[in-house]
Write a structure and sequence with these properties.
Blueprint lengths: L9 E3 L17 E3 L2 E3 L2 E3 L7 E3 L2 E3 L2 E3 L7 E3 L13 E3 L7 E3 L7 E3 L6 E4 L7 E3 L4 E3 L5 E3 L1 E4 L38
Parallel strand pairs: 1-2, 2-5, 3-6, 4-7, 5-8, 7-9, 8-10, 9-11, 10-12, 11-13, 12-16
Antiparallel strand pairs: 14-15
Length: 186
């Protein structure tokens, strides 16, 4: 039986790998203790979804809407190798990650304005042209992000624009920060 993916649904302790995620709208849903393997979230509406203890194995989020989504105690890293989740051209504005394993995740050309990551493992994560800013007019552009108590060991933040962002208690051991803008960051 395949679970029904619909806005506001509550899905608990299910393997949702075979569910039809492409172009689905699951906004405001709650997923707890679920497993998703090799899922392609293409054009999927996941706005304000709450994920708790969900395992995302080899998943790709392409053009997905993850605005205001909340991830708690989730695992995005594959146990069998160095494969993490891929976020490409996705919207993660004001998404929150708490105690998640995002090792080797790849955030490529995705909107991350106001993203908050607390006590997350981002070892080897890549932020390729990720955008932490938002335009509030012709000449007003603000950046907002928080990486509090995160492990960013070996992470690639090349050219990341994180001025005035909260990086308190995070580890940047051997992180790549070539031409990164961290001016005024805590």
């Amino acid at each position: 039986m395949i679970a029904r993916l619909q806005p506001g649904a509550t899905l608990v302790d299910l393997d949702l790998s075979d569910a039809p995620w492409a172009d689905a709208d699951v906004s405001d849903a709650v997923l707890q203790g679920c497993t998703l393997r090799d899922v392609q979230f293409s054009g999927t509406g996941l706005q304000a979804v709450r994920f708790k203890a969900v395992r995302f194995l080899r998943c790709r989020f392409a053009h997905a809407d993850l605005r205001e989504a909340v991830f708690e105690d989730c695992v995005f890293a594959d146990d069998t190798g160095h494969a993490g989740a891929q976020f490409a051209f996705s919207r993660l504005e004001e998404a929150r990650f708490a105690r998640c394993d995002l090792s080797f995740a790849r955030f490529e050309r995705s909107g991350l304005y106001g993203v908050e990551m607390d006590a997350c493992n981002l070892r080897g994560a890549v932020f390729l042209r990720a955008d932490f800013s938002r335009s509030f007019g012709r000449s007003v552009v603000r950046s907002s992000a928080a990486f509090r108590g995160c492990n960013l060991e070996l992470a690639d933040l090349t050219e990341a624009r994180l001025p005035d962002c909260d990086l308190n208690g995070s580890c940047f051991r051997e992180a790549v920060l070539i031409e990164a803008d961290l001016e005024g960051a805590d």
